[in-house]
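subagent[fold] <- orchestrator: predict structure for attached chain, return tokens only, no commentary.
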Amino acid sequence: MAFRDLIPDVDATVFEILGDTVLIEGREVLGMFSAPWLQPKVGQIRTALREPHLVIRVQDNIGIEVKHKVFFGVPPEDGGGNYLITSIEPGGDGLVTLILRKSL
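subagent[fold] -> orchestrator:
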């Protein structure tokens, strides 16, 4: 079995353990959410994240479009709430980044 054949299983495990469940137009999707106001640090260097985003697997991106609604059901202090997808950026690595904008 080639390394490339193993990646979907690795991604599935990582997303199952570390992923957040969000609702995109009412459909549950596992992703990794990041919010800029939480200012993640890498060592002592602050990252340059500017907008909230959600990283999902390519297979979960089927049917998702710009302006779809996203709901992240955690406390607001952790970035929870309603968002709109403003951009979809494929990474070329089997993952897609959904750029989000906070909505009411």
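orchestrator: received. Logging for downstream: The CA atoms of residues 36 and 52 lie 6 Å apart. The domain at 3-102 is CATH 2.40.10 (Thrombin, subunit H).
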